[in-house]
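To close the chapter, one final illustration. This time we ask the reader to focus less on the individual chains and more on the assembly as a whole: which components sit near each other, and how the overall shape emerges from the parts.
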Amino acid sequence: MGLKRYIIIRVFQGILTAFLALVVIFFIIHIVPGDPVKMYFANAPFAKYDAEREAMWRAKLGLDKPIYIQFLMWLDRLFHGDFGTSMAIGGYGGLEVTTIIRQALLNTLKLWAISFAMILAVAIPTGVISAVHQYSKKDYMVRTGTIISWSIPWFWYGIIMIYIFAETLGWFPAGGVITLDPQSARFGQGTFGDTLWHLALPAIVIGTSSFGFLTRLVRSSMLDVLRQEYITTARAKGLAERIVIYKHALRNALLPVVTVIGLQVGAILSGHAITESVFGYPGMGWLMIEAASSRDYPLLMALCTMITSVIILSIIVTDILYAYLDPRIRY
Amino acid sequence: MFKKERTLFIRCLLCLSLITTLLVPITASLAVNEEVPQKSFFTLTIVCSPEFGETDIAEVWKPELKKIGIDLNIVTVEDVDTLVMENPTKSYEEGGWDIVIKGASPELGHPGAVIPYSILDRPFVPFVKDEDFWTMVDELAAASDETTLKKVSGEALSWWIDNLPIFDFLTDKRAVIFNPNVKNTDKYGLYFDYTLPMETVIKAGMYYEGKDTYTYAETEVWYLLPFFGWYTCGPGQFQRLLWMKPEDKTLVPELAESWEISPDGTVYTFHLKKDVVWSDEEPFTSADCKFTFDLMLNPTIGSEAGIFLRRVIDSMETPDELTFVIHTKKAVPFFLEWLARSCCPCIVPKHTLENIKPEDMANSDYATGAKACPTTGWYVLDQMVVGDYIRFKRNPLLHSSFTPVKNEYFILKKVGEKTTIVSMIKTGEVSGHYAGLGMSADAPALKGDPKVIVVDFSPNNWLKTLHLNPNHPILCNKYVRRALAYSFPANDVAKKVFSGYGEPAGGAPLSPSSEYWPTGLQTYTYDISKAKQMMEKAGYHYDLLKVEIPPTPYLEYGGFLIGGIIVGTLVGFAVARQRARKTP
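The assembled structure is written out below.
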């Protein structure tokens, strides 16, 4: 099968998968206990319950119709790019879902960009060192470190980081996205430096939790590659060890790492609810929790649609890239 | 010892052990705890929301109810209000409710807190079916002078205590936590006791020294229009016609410069301040006042203030741009005091909001913060970042008669985690936080920490109440309700659930310090013996709660018999053996 045909089939499969996923998500969201209209009356500070207002809200959300009709109505709005207004955030029925998601997504992308940079800067060299010096003290230290980083409860870790670095040492702020008071902004209010300063602690917390996994992945990948014959050949040719490791081995060892990072895109979009909650950071994780706990159907469906689409897209792109790189991979 | 005798001895020992093992649990089960009845008369279900420690309150109360023969089933529901509203008369078994815990804000001690007006704001009061109650409401409405009002109010309060349609059990005390750089001369420097007028707050302090910004941590960021309740809108964004000094309760002009009341007490004429402008430079006029009150009177808006205003206001006039007249249906002695209450509407700009339908007001751009609504107050909306913060900027067009705020910006910063709020206060990122309910538990631990200042704020204006379904077949009996009240351990609840931040309210929706409190009125205190007396009066007799020996796995009469046989056999065997030895 040619590459073009493979791509077409793969894309078609992706669309079908996405559609089926959305059907399942839609029905699950609407079937689980919890009524969004009741939650609205429970949570909105002004809303006095009465039957008429309940009926009005049900009609507005389409909840008075059979569930399959609701799904078709939602699908129709989706094709028109209308995700509706949020029931629970930013004004209880006033703010567009896309506006809310855009802000949270931006915050999350900033956070993940910083934390990923940290992870890669630490995990790759650490994994290489551990693999190259297998069974040495360095290797054991790295492996112990990865276990510890995997084991630390994020909530506790975040609070400890705040206590040490914010409260006690005063090096970083305890939370937030930017410095709210212009006079207190060390790097200028809302500047790149200010943003980095606020993102440092949450990024370290997220980075620590992911460091262990990635380090181990780099390590095992490096160990596989270092056993390859071409590495032996490179050494036999008299190449410096540094060139053998970083130019020949690492490049090949990073292939699976890149694949895994690519597949993590969906996880990125889901945010990191616990960390965001501890640091008062309004990202996607926070938004998901708010939407789910408030039964905010429009927001919840918009978030699920976005995340599902991105995950499926990333898988398709990965598969296509693999097929491109390795002609043996075809259906 | 000979082998056989040794064996005999061991067997006797084993049997004695077996018998002892059988006897111990039997003996224990016979020891009756006289305080805890083994049976219960009936089971009640308390429906709690997952917030505000409601389930913890119920857990503290449960063993006390057990002492008087009532089992308490604790159920958690997300949307208690809707459950009650949809099923006002049904018991829990029928899909409704038996008991719920709610908060209420009668503004204890406030002259406007005249029962039942202060409790008419409560959503469940319409379920009180007693005609006597509603007769008293009408009598209060008809009371047109202070003396009659006090008399009728006293009678109404006595009726309330006697019949207990709702049991107010705890007056909430709070703590406020703020950074030491925040300059507050006293507790009034804390904005977010929303009963306090802005002038009081500003004069008491409320500024963060060395900063442009006063940042207040909130776990939720509210609305930005003042219609929907007393806890919406930003700090000093909007203003009322008048306000009340909390220290001596004198009425002070705000947007109204002066006022007159007609001799029959039904016409209130307000003379508005000159040269007041909205922050968009439009003039403030009486048309804005009428527009605001018309909105409050519209049930579609859903304003809590409207509940009272619709009972009282007959009509309104605007004879000129600086005169606003309210005609009431009857003389209401405390009407001015009520207008000075925090839940009373702040005046909003007609020219901005008049084209928005009342039913769309809650979702309008001005309510959500997408656009800044013009204000006459101290702060104007500057920026809103959804889920993060709302920033207000000092209003440069504030009328000269008002004290300006010192910080350029006021920010309501949303922070979900309470530990993070405390950290941010310590680092100065946040100026302060109003430590209500769930936060109170941290306040005692923070006292003595040099990085924060903790101020206990009392008395507060928030009550915790037990709403008892008046249509419940058991709870409709007032003696049962009184028994529940006497069994409620308010002090324990305050100590265990709110770390001591609370005082027993005794059942009254009014403070004893209120001038409407009748002399000598006895309220409810925790007393199990009185609770039992009330249950007896309700027809539940404790001698019917027989103590039964609970079955135990050891209570096998066969065990008794077998043990006895073994012991008897062994003892007999031993005696026979001994005799055999003696016999030559």
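Chain A touches chain B through 51 residues (CB under 8 Å). Residues 163 and 174 of chain A are 8 Å apart (CA to CA). With these observations in hand, you are ready for the problems at the end of the chapter.
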